[in-house]
Amino acid sequence: MTPPLLQPPGYVPVPEGTNPPLNSPGYKSTGLRAPAQQPIVLPHRLTEVTGPLLTGPVNPGDDDLTIGANGEAVGQRIVVFGRVLDSDGRAIPDTLVEIWQANAAGRYAHRWDNWPAPLDPNFTGGGRTLTDAHGNYSFTTIKPGAYPWGNHHNAWRPAHIHFSLFGRAFTQRLVTQMYFPDDPLFAQDPIYNSAPEESRHRMVSTFDLDATRPEWALAFRFDIVLRGRAQTPFEEPHA
């Protein structure tokens, strides 16, 4: 038996109902990929809590999705920025933040996305950055378009940006989506509505005129809270 002083810290489970369920009836494809039986939570050992470490480089320009190999991306330039915080409002520094999204026409640069909307040769849709000492992050990108996705009749996904946050190990990964204010497609989007009603607003960014860059890009603030009563909803429960 491991002496008490050498026990790894582990992760405290979030309260029931904090995150969307793995099987949400309104979100059709979850019925195909959600586990049929209750997942078994394995005890955390030291290697799962502390490593492997994420030490890969973040290159200059990885946070600017508007600059392609042969020119600028097409669409409304936006700045998406905010802070990553813990449940007590303390900044989380040196966290790897990655985003991926559709282009201005609502199409992903992916071989499986083949609906008839134009691809942008100067927009890959992916970016990454590290939070600074105060938990701040920022991306310059293009506002994504809505797209059809076949979940139900005349189904369209609201404009959104996917976020992935890594801690110091691969087991410390959280995934969520950021939406834009006043989107008319919220009411019929089962992914947005799978989150508890009282927490859905935490996935919606806030337009920030003060941070908007004159004659260049609109700005949207999106703060991400990892745990606690003000936690941002994430896409799956984490033990």
Automatic annotation (TrEMBL):
Keyword Oxidoreductase attached: yes
Protein keywords: Dioxygenase, Oxidoreductase
Region described as Disordered: spans on this chain: 1-24
Keyword Oxidoreductase: yes
Domain named Intradiol ring-cleavage dioxygenases: residues: 80-108
PROSITE patterns hit by this protein: INTRADIOL_DIOXYGENAS
Stored InterPro entries: Intradiol_dOase_C, Intradiol_dOase_core, Intradiol_RC_Dioxygenase, PCDO_beta_N, Protocat_dOase_b
Compositionally biased region (Pro residues): 1-12
Entry similarity comment: Belongs to the intradiol ring-cleavage dioxygenase family.
Protein name: Protocatechuate 3,4-dioxygenase subunit beta
Organism: Pseudonocardia kongjuensis
Gene for this chain: pcaH
